[in-house]
From TrEMBL:
Name this protein carries in UniProt: Right handed beta helix domain-containing protein
UniProt cross-references to SUPFAM superfamilies, sorted A to Z: Pectin lyase-like
InterPro entries in the record: Beta_helix, Pectin_lyas_fold, Pectin_lyase_fold/virulence
Pfam families on file: Beta_helix
Domain Right handed beta helix: 71-180
Organism: marine sediment metagenome
């Protein structure tokens, strides 16, 4: 990923599983994010790319801090020993992604993310920890949390959760960790 720059768009074909840890080591900008979109046979068909991290610690991680400004659309992050996605950086967006059966090496989340990360129309299922574990203020829109061992969403300092479905969470559906000056919006449609 070290050859992408702000405003780049990368189409990724789902013609097989990607079996490596992807590391974000460059950043986009607020108006010009770096976008990765999966597809099956023709660009834009909505097919999902599988990042199968079997035997690896994480499926997606970062080596930079601060605002990432990355968008991932149509990806499956699965089978990591720890977290499907593990980002220290802030402001990533995940659309139409799946985070499944991560934490095979112990309790871990589908996604561990920094401040202001957004998830839209994503599925979190069968992870051995939380579906999402966020440092601060995630925005979660129209997602499904199914049979995760921990919380559906754990957000340490507030956030917005709108039109989501929680089923068979091992702990709580939503856990706002009690940070100071939290803002919390939970809207059920």
């Amino acid at each position: 990923m070290n050859t992408v720059a702000a405003d780049d768009k990368v189409w990724v074909k789902s013609d097989g599983d990607y079996t490596e840890t992807f590391a974000i080591d460059t950043v986009g900008t607020e108006g010009n994010p770096i976008v990765f979109k999966g597809y099956d046979s023709s660009i834009g068909d909505g097919g999902k790319v599988t990042v199968d991290a079997t035997g690896l610690t994480d499926g997606l991680t970062d080596t930079v801090s601060g605002n990432l400004f990355y968008v991932f659309k149509n990806f499956k992050f699965t089978n990591a020993l720890s977290n499907g996605v593990n980002l220290d950086g802030d402001r990533a967006i995940f659309k139409n992604c799946e985070f499944n059966t991560n934490g095979l090496g112990g309790a871990a989340a589908g996604a561990v993310v920094g401040h202001g990360t957004m998830f839209e129309a994503c599925i979190f299922s069968g992870n051995t920890g939380d579906g999402i574990q966020a440092d601060n203020q995630p925005v979660v829109l129209g997602c499904r949390f199914l049979s995760n061992t921990g919380d559906g969403v754990q957000a340490n300092n507030g956030g917005a959760i709108i039109d989501c479905v929680f089923y068979n969470c091992g702990s709580r559906a939503i856990n706002f960790g009690g940070g100071a000056n939290d803002w919390i919006y939970v809207v059920y449609g």
